Amino acid sequence: MNNELTAVYFIWKRELIRFFRSKSRVIGSLGMPFFLLAVLGSGLNNVMEVSGGNYMDFITPGIIAMVLLFGSLLSGITVIMDRQFGFLKETLVAPVSRLSIVVGKSLGGATTAIIQGILILGIAMAMGVAVDLTSIPVLLILMLLVSLSFVTLGVALASLMEDMHGFQLVMNFIVMPMFFLSGALFPIDTAPEIVRYISYIDPLTYAVEGMRYLLLDYSYLPLSIVFGVLGGFFIITTSLAVYLFNGIES
Question: How far apart are CA 21 and CA 43, in angstroms?
Answer without folding.
Answer: 34
